[in-house]
Structure formats: structure tokens, C-alpha cells
Design a protein that fits this description.
This protein has 205 residues and is mainly α. 71% of the residues lie in helices and 0% in strands. The protein contains 8 helices and no strands. The relative contact order is 0.09.
């Protein structure tokens, strides 16, 4: 009697898993092409391209910075010129306004400016004090075409000559450097103090 043979399970149909080759995994590049991409030559070519892009960007940024620097320099020089001219105009106006006026009124104007919180007023106070000192030396008969020359003429007669020179130097920096000269309140007050000592010796009150 022959044994009954029970059939095994039959294969069922189901989803098939596609096979993925190495070529498909890298966007269609075959293995030799991938090897070429990551070879020393490929890396150097990539770095060369990157350097070219960097160089172009660096040139563009440099040009932009140069243009901004030139623009800022022009604006700064214009501002300094305007500030310097404004101080000179104020000096001339003050000289014209107070010419022949009692020195006590002129000194009061100087002290008012030096007590201000505005640095431009401090500069104006020093310029005004320098004019008073120059006028006083002229009235006392010291010769010279400029204040500097008159101070040299008075060298043997003034105990406060050093104060006069130091104060006059600050005045010159204000006039010549304009807005570039940073005048602190401490320096401004010390300078006016020097002028006061000169005025006391010269009898200005």
C-alpha cells in the first residue's frame, strides 16, 4: 500500500522587492565614475572651483568696501571743513562785535562759554580768550605781525609767557584741526585758566 503524500505549501504571490544595484544608488554613476569623483584629482578640481568663487566674491567685497571708504572720507573731510569754517566765522564775528568793547564784557562772554556743556562753546571760549590776549599785547605796544611774534617780543617782560604759549597752542589746534581735535572739558578749563593768569599779569579785568 502506497503512503499518502501530503503536498507542501504552495508559493503565494506578493510584492516583489526590486534589486538595487550600486550604479542606481548613486544616481546612475558607475563605479569608475565614482572613483574618479573622489580621487585626488577630483578633490583638487573641486577646491580649484571653490577658490575661484571665493576670489570673485573677495574682489566684489573689496570694491564695495573701497567705495564706502572713499565716500566716508569725503563726507568726513567735508564735515571737518565746515566745522573749521564755522569756528573761523565765529571768531571773526566775535572780534568784530567786541572790538572796542570793555574787556570785562568780553571776559564775561568767555566765562559763559567755558561753563557750557557744549564742546564747541569751549572751543569758542579759547578762541575768544586768544583774541583778547592778542589785543592786549597790541595795546601794550609789543611789535609783531602775529600773536606768536608779539609773544616773542614780550618774552623778557612776561612771567606768564609759558602759559600764554601753551594756551595759544591749543587755540591753533582748534583752528587748524577743526573737528579732528578732541577737546575735553578738563583741557578747555586748564587752557582758560592759563589765559586768566596771563590776563591778571597784563591787567585785563
Amino acid at each position: 500500500m502506497e503512503p499518502n503524500i501530503i503536498p507542501g505549501p504552495t508559493a503565494t504571490s506578493g510584492p516583489t522587492i526590486p534589486s538595487v544595484g550600486i550604479d542606481n544608488a548613486f544616481g546612475g554613476l558607475n563605479v569608475p565614475e565614482l572613483a574618479g569623483l573622489f580621487s585626488l584629482g577630483g578633490v583638487l578640481a573641486f577646491l580649484d572651483t571653490l577658490w575661484s568663487v571665493y576670489t570673485i566674491l573677495a574682489y566684489i567685497v573689496s570694491i564695495i568696501l573701497l567705495v564706502l571708504y572713499v565716500y566716508a572720507s569725503v563726507k568726513k573731510n567735508l564735515y571737518v571743513d565746515l566745522q573749521t569754517q564755522a569756528l573761523r566765522d565765529a571768531e571773526r564775528l566775535w572780534d568784530e562785535q567786541y572790538r572796542g568793547v570793555a574787556k570785562s564784557s568780553r571776559l564775561q562772554d568767555i566765562f559763559t562759554h567755558i561753563e557750557s556743556d557744549n564742546p564747541n562753546d569751549w572751543k569758542l571760549a579759547i578762541i575768544e580768550a586768544d583774541i583778547v590776549m592778542d589785543d592786549t599785547l597790541k595795546q601794550k605796544g609789543y611789535p609783531g605781525a602775529t600773536l606768536g611774534e608779539r609773544l616773542k617780543s614780550a618774552a623778557s617782560n612776561m612771567n606768564t609767557l609759558q602759559d600764554a604759549w601753551e594756551a595759544h597752542k591749543i587755540r591753533n589746534r582748534i583752528a587748524h584741526d577743526g573737528a579732528d581735535f578732541v577737546l575735553t572739558k578738563k583741557i578747555a578749563q586748564e587752557t582758560i585758566g592759563r589765559y586768566q593768569r596771563v590776563f591778571n599779569e597784563l591787567g585785563v579785568s
